[in-house]
Amino acid sequence: MSQPLATGARTGRHNSPDRIAAKRILVVEDDPDISHLLEIHLREGAFEVDVAGDGVTGLEQACSRDYALIVLDLMLPGIDGIEVCRRLREQSSGVPILMLTAKSTELDRVLGLELGADDYLTKPFSILELQARVKAILRRVGRAAQPEVAVERLELDALEIDVAGRQVILDGEAVELTAREFDLLLCFARHPGRVFSRAQLLDRVWGYSHNGYEHTVNSHINRLRKKIDPDPARSRYIETVWGVGYRFRET
Q1: What pLDDT shows up at residue 5?
Q2: Three-state DSSP state, 69
Q3: How far apart are CA 137 and CA 8, in angstroms?
Q4: Which tens digit of pLDDT belongs to each residue from 17-68?
Q5: pLDDT digits (tens, 9 = 90+) for 132-163
Q6: What distance in Å separates the CA atoms of residue 103 and residue 108, rounded to the nearest whole number?
Q7: What share of the chain is helix, strand, coil (3-state, %, to 5)?
Q8: Stretch 167-179: mean pLDDT, rounded?
Q9: What's the rounded Cα separation, in Å, for the pair 11 and 166?
Q10: Rounded to whole angstroms, how far apart are CA atoms 16 and 128?
């Protein structure tokens, strides 16, 4: 059973000018009190919400319709959140996933990120923090969906990036990336040679800066490298600048 969720006070920001248009979110959480609380607060934020109480049902719902975001608990009956995340990514589903975990170990958090979760929150957390994360993810996805003024295509060595189509080709073969991986790659590719700190990447790609979440960047870069730099000893694109951050190799 999931641990109690610490809740923040209701803010009454129903008519805030930065309120996001209604989008559908899937909450996969086995604790009925927590799932009900999440549903209430997400609906207050103008989101449509579906709820699943176990991993099997959550996976079925995630595969049966389009969602703007999945809030996924790690500890679930049937199949756990890690397995749900893994199966969705195996199906090349790019839906953003915000993972909730009651576990405090680094291994559990990193495992979820390695398998394709876009972000995570450790219980207990405040409703305000959850809402901020959800809005940051959806703003990023919304910006990416805006029509391009002109077709933008980046060609860097054997790597081709179709920005409008959000497609990546490496050595003539399509590369399947999650939405977050694509945004991370695009950030690098648009600024070859520039060194980004982890905090800068959090702000640019995730939409927020938060001390202590730099390992989220590390996990996503590791997964991205496996897809475009299969030989870590001879990186073709993303280089580590020790003590500073990362940069995209100039071709």
Answers
A1: 44
A2: strand
A3: 20
A4: 333 445 899 999 999 999 999 999 999 888 899 999 999 999 999 999 889 9
A5: 888 877 877 665 555 444 457 888 888 999 98
A6: 7
A7: 40, 20, 40
A8: 89
A9: 36
A10: 14
At residue 168, the 3 state secondary structure works out as strand
Start-to-end CA distance of the chain, whole Å, equals 51
Domain ranges of the chain: 24-144, 153-248
Average pLDDT over residues 195-211: 78
Residues with Cβ within 8 Å of 228's Cβ and at least 6 positions away in sequence, in order, are 159, 168, 170, 175, 185, 236, 237, 238
Residues 57 and 78 sit within 8 Å (Cβ to Cβ): yes
DSSP code per residue over 65-134: S--SEEEEESS-SSS-HHHHHHHHHHTT----EEEEE----HHHHHHHHHTT-SEEEESS--HHHHHHHH
CA atoms within 13 A on the CB side of 165: 12
Sheet with 245-248, side-by-side order of all strands: 195-197, 245-248, 238-241
Question: Does domain 24-144 sit in CATH 3.40.50.2300?
Answer: yes
Q: Which of 165, 177, 162, 191 is nearest to 228 (CA)?
A: 177
**Token pair for residue 48?**
């449509």
Q: What is the DSSP letter of 234?
A: G
- Return the number of other C-beta atoms located less than 10 Å from residue 213's C-beta: 16
Rounded CA separation 37/84 (Å): 22
Residue 232 CA to residue 13 CA, distance in Å, equals: 47
Write down the CATH number for the domain with range 153-248: 1.10.10.10
Question: What sign does the dihedral 209-214-219-220 (CA atoms) show?
Answer: positive
C-alpha 125 chain-centroid distance: 18
Kindly report the number of other CB atoms within 10 A of residue 150's CB atom: 7
